[in-house]
Write a structure and sequence with these properties.
- InterPro entries: MFS, MFS_dom, MFS_Efflux_Transporters, MFS_trans_sf.
- This is MFS transporter.
- It is a multi-pass membrane protein.
- It comes from Rhodoferax saidenbachensis.
- The protein is globular and about 55 Å long.
- It is mainly α and 394 residues long.
- The longest helix is centred in the middle third of the chain and has 38 residues.
- The two termini are 17 Å apart.
- It has a two-stranded antiparallel sheet.
- It is 78% helix and 2% strand.
- Strand 1 and strand 2 form a beta hairpin.
- It contains 15 helices and two strands.
- The chain folds into two domains: 177 residues, Growth Hormone, Chain: A (Up-down Bundle); 184 residues, MFS general substrate transporter like domains (Growth Hormone, Chain: A), CATH 1.20.1250.20.
Length: 394
């Protein structure tokens, strides 16, 4: 018997995740410029502080996952809301580079136990192998984080300034997200086994997962997070260097969010009857195909590229939750997920800077870089064997 109605869980956790993403990951895009102006630092410095927070997130992710394996997601997610509130309040009080970095480090600690990896581990702890649909449901709701967060942050900044915006987001964590996460079921503590993702024995099947599977999956996650973050940071500039007008570039960028949600709806409908590995393989091909078409055809294909990239990215977000479950099983899922995501978080932190150098050097030719990386991820997924996975149910 499920520990909580899946629909109720999706609504609670999905709403809390939407708020978590909107107030952290999507915050610098709106507040970086006003923060930089008032503190007398460059916008690059603000993003460097954000990147430092992402590095902390990657380092602490396995510990947060292990805590969820042991205690369940309720206390870890609730603690993340308190850390988010403290970090955002510190950001609102920042008066220079040191306090700016300190605030993002606290927020980064919160992100290690408060974003998708923690939510996925919470759902696996609650529903075990039957988690695919609820994982998809969470990503469907939180897929609107930028759609909600960017306009709200913009409106708040215009009304009460960037400091007031930070305080407002901190208050929303305490008033909305914290009660929602505390309303999740309280699970009995269990002893979490030590996890080695390269040699994991599942008691129910006594199956050993080779190091190859762990390395390939970590590589896929790192590449896809790099591409996703690089596109989020540089898409308008990338499109304009491809001959796309600024208006069309903005339109194309605005379509990525809906395309991600459409991809997740596709996963929830048609693709959920497929093995998660197969749907991930299909999704991994979408960015390279769209990038190659844009590089060859140019401006007329900008919309198509945005739709392909967004839909593929939306499905791959779900795959980050379902593939470790199918390949390795539910036992020790949280810690293993955290370990597999360490390279991805580091790649995510470096993506805006490294891909920015590519755009600066090659302009639209940088698309060939992201297309090549996406192709590597696609081949890595094809190298993963479906025969060694745990029993799969859609």
């Amino acid at each position: 018997m499920p520990l909580s109605g899946p629909t109720t869980t999706v609504l609670k956790l999905g709403t809390a995740q939407t708020l978590a993403w909107a107030s952290t990951y999507y915050l610098p895009a709106i507040l970086a410029a006003p923060i930089a102006r008032e503190l007398g630092v460059s916008v690059a410095t603000v993003f460097a502080a954000f990147s430092a927070g992402l590095v902390i997130t990657g380092i602490l992710g396995p510990r947060a996952g292990r805590a969820i394996d042991t205690l369940g997601g309720r206390p870890v997610l609730a603690l993340s809301n308190l850390l988010f509130a403290v970090g955002l309040a510190l950001l609102g009080l920042a008066n220079g580079p040191l306090s700016l970095f300190a605030a993002w480090i606290v927020i980064g600690i919160g992100m290690s136990g408060g974003l998708y990896e923690a939510a996925f581990a919470t759902l696996v702890r609650m529903y075990g192998r039957d988690s695919r649909s609820v994982i998809t449901g969470i990503t469907l709701l939180a897929g609107f984080a930028s759609t909600v967060g960017w306009p709200l942050s913009t409106a708040l900044e215009a009304w009460i300034g960037w400091r007031g915006t930070c305080f407002a987001w901190a208050g929303l964590h305490l008033l909305i997200a914290l009660p929602l996460n505390l309303s999740l079921p309280k699970l009995a503590a269990v002893d979490a086994p030590e996890v080695d993702p390269s040699n994991d024995t599942r008691p129910e099947q006594q199956t050993v997962v080779p190091m190859k599977s762990a390395v390939l999956l970590a590589l896929v996650f790192a590449i896809t997070w790099f591409i996703s973050t690089a596109m989020a940071a540089h898409l308008p500039m990338l499109l304009t260097t491809s001959g796309v007008s600024l208006g069309m570039a903005v339109t194309a960028g605005a379509l990525i969010g809906p395309a991600q949600v459409a991809g997740r709806l596709l996963e929830f409908g048609v693709l959920r009857h497929m093995h998660p590995l197969l749907s991930a393989r299909i999704a991994s091909a979408m960015h390279p195909i769209g990038a190659v078409v844009l590089a060859i055809v140019g401006a007329p294909s900008a919309i198509l590229f945005a739709i392909f990239h967004g839909a593929g990215n939306g499905i791959l977000t779900i795959a980050k939750g379902t593939l470790p479950l199918v390949l390795f099983g539910p036992q020790g899922y949280g810690e293993r997920q955290g370990l597999l995501m360490v390279p991805a978080r580091l790649a995510q932190a470096l993506a805006p800077w490294l891909f920015g150098l590519c755009v600066e050097q090659w302009g639209a030719g940088a698309l060939w870089v992201s297309a090549a990386m996406g192709t590597v991820a696609m081949f890595a997924l094809w190298m993963l064997s479906q025969s060694g996975t745990t029993a799969y149910k859609d």
